[in-house]
Amino acid sequence: MPAQHGDATVTGPGAGRLPAVTTTTTPQTATPADPTAEQVAAAIAGRRFTPAFQPVYSLRDGRLLAVEALTRFTDPPGPSPLGWFRAAERAGLGAELEIAAVEVALDAAADLPPDVALSVNVSPATLCDPRLVDLLAARADRPLVVEITEHTQVHDYDRLVEAIETLRGLGVRVAVDDAGTGASTVHHTLLVGPEVIKIDMSLARGVAGGQRDAMIDHLLAAARITGAELVVEGIEDVDDLLAWIDLGADAVQGYLVGRPGTLPAVAVSTLIVSALAGQAAHAAGEVTAAR
User: Fold this and answer.
1) What's the pLDDT score for residue 291?
2) What are the pLDDT digits (tens) for 14-23?
């Protein structure tokens, strides 16, 4: 049984197994809308949040590949999810809130089809927490992806890689989230060696209109070098969807193909299936015209 979240004493088979990872977090200033430390502690103790699941679809055949668990807070209802996690970090409860959110997501996704992965978000420091290892080890009977968030700069990659290898030993895949922004540079991506690279929405949008950032080419190259699956986040436009199909992305998520919500998620994106059929018909027409 994992240690209780928020307990200073860590017990269980993962205790002491992983060294802490050294990170630098950009100092966050509290805003009037952010919850207090007491509210954060109460939210953790009472699990006053729920997961919302956003689907990730294949750009090969439109199949549902995964759902990403996003955390939604209800008590009090005002602060944003970012505000909650920011307040938890300031209160010294960042890992506790992240692990509690993962636990709630795992429980809610218990009936996911066995070929659909559950993707959860954690910081580099929490990824090295023995409590997270214990929690994921207890749920290793289903496909899991841990997304490393980009809000902290990692200074000791040896320790981070050691933690990643421990998770891989459990069958957990690792993703670099928001790639191309913040701390998720190409260098960071290559050092982590993830199974999944998730391109941030700020780079993903506008590609069809010629707004292609040079970072995109670097990330495409990083995916080829590492053999990682390339997932594009935040797609809201059909033309961008078609452009990413042409660029060779593996999967996509965003409001265009599925908003965050409750499970079950739609098993096949008919929009992507139609887009792929249209691309194939267009390519066949070009071949015919060239003869």
Assistant:
1) 54
2) 334 444 444 4
